[in-house]
Amino acid sequence: MRIPSLLFVAVLLTAAVAPPGAAAGGGAAPADPLGSSRWEDMRRELFAGVPVVFDARVAVTAPDSAEDPLNVPVGVDASALADVREVLVFADFNPILKVLSFEPAAAKPSLGFRMKLQQSSPVRAAARTGDGVWHVGGAWVTTSGGGCTLPSVGSASPEWQQRLNEVSGRLWTGSGRGDRLRLRIVHPMDTGLAAGVPAFHVDDLRVSDAADRLLMRIRTFEPVAENPVFTLDLPAGTAGDGPLRISGRDNNGNRIDAQVRP
Question: In the CATH scheme, what is the code of domain 39-260?
């Protein structure tokens, strides 16, 4: 039986930092709201020795049922938390756990993207605040699976070699409510789990404003979908200050360098 994705509880922290996975103030560790048999493995592997709490303020939006396991739309929003330093996204039952991480810098701690799922799984986001606590939210996604072990469409086409790391983007102004940037990067994003196809993926991406101020840094891993699309929420007026610079690289060292103009 699939556990509803909204069944997340907020855990209040006392002045003393609780041990990893423990309830605030001591006592037994709270049960996983998504009921995953893999949660304790995730906690030990990704958050060993650091405090972790389930927190409804970290919102993860994803379809209850994903028809295409190669392109599962996911949105993460931790803007209800203060002082978010880093956000890590992972899927319990994927053969490659980590999907991506991002440091919001001057941008809001929210990101939209698409990912691959090998089978039905919780998709979780953990936001690290300045006090060192990881706040975890998530949603359960049901899918037919196989997304991580299939080769990309692009890897079989000669076109991607000519357009590799080509960036297209669009900026929207929010009239005081913030600006929004959407990026698309041409890249096959192969996981290395398909026979005869090595891992090949965007590794690091930086978005900076016209004054070279870092807006967001995104580290991507193999489960991000082919030709990745990212949606960022930016401070109001960012789009009017001049072109934004998109820079980075893939795991083979191929550079990404582009500008997006208002």
Answer: 2.60.40.2470
